[in-house]
Design goal:
single chain, mainly alpha, Adenine_glyco, DNA-3-methyladenine glycosylase I, DNA-3mA_glycosylase
């Protein structure tokens, strides 16, 4: 845990660069439920493997341009010529396995639609009953049983370059779980979780007040 000079409590990683701080304060852990948004995070988490998240954030706009705004149908149409062009694009991470995985995953996402559940709905179906409630950075888990199940399920549906750690990073990024420190000003920012890790009551239920 670290305190930035504005006295707000953040995870230690978020205090190392203004770009990370902005991402933490405005985006990380907020619910993302649309196909394009989930596919973008899935793709970027795969590219982040072995690198820092700051490296990815600095190239995010270049990634969006290179991968057609992360629209699944457009990325699924990428051919070998487009892959070679991406391998020459200095604005992104030029890793052939990761680039090809993005195309493979876009096609797998299309197939998920045909099976009756889109990518976003499928990923969110692995939301656990409880979320962690870490008091220190050391208590923040790197994976969970639900993440391992999600990774296995994605692989069964043809996705590649996915594993339990990456799946959990995706789940934390899009609000499926809340791993903000319990003392952080962002704890509970998604509106889905309470400070103790239990689910927040849905709007309009007996647990809500006017």
């Amino acid at each position: 845990m670290e305190l930035h000079d504005d006295t707000r409590v953040r995870a230690a990683w978020a205090n190392t660069d203004p770009l990370l701080r902005g991402y933490y304060d405005t985006e990380w852990g907020m619910p993302v439920r649309d196909e394009t948004g989930v596919f973008e995070r899935l793709t970027l988490e795969a590219f982040q493997a072995g690198l820092s998240w700051l490296t990815i954030l600095r190239r995010r706009e270049a990634f969006r341009e290179a991968f057609a705004g992360f629209e699944v149908n457009r990325v699924a149409d990428f051919d070998d010529t487009r892959v070679e062009a991406l391998m020459a694009d200095t604005g992104i991470i030029r890793n052939r396995r990761k680039i090809e995985a993005a195309v493979t995953n876009a096609r797998a996402a299309q197939q998920l639609r045909a099976s009756g559940a889109g990518l976003a709905e499928f990923v969110w179906s692995f939301q656990p009953e409880r979320s962690p409630a870490p008091e220190t950075d050391a208590e923040v888990p790197s994976t969970a049983p639900e993440a391992a199940e999600l990774a296995r399920a994605l692989k069964r549906h043809g996705f590649s370059f996915v594993g339990p750690t990456m799946a959990y990073a995706l789940m934390t990024a899009i609000g499926i779980v809340d791993v903000h420190l319990v003392t952080s000003h962002r704890r509970g920012c998604s509106g889905l979780w309470l400070a103790d890790g239990s689910r927040a009551p849905a709007a309009g239920t007996a647990g809500s007040q006017r």
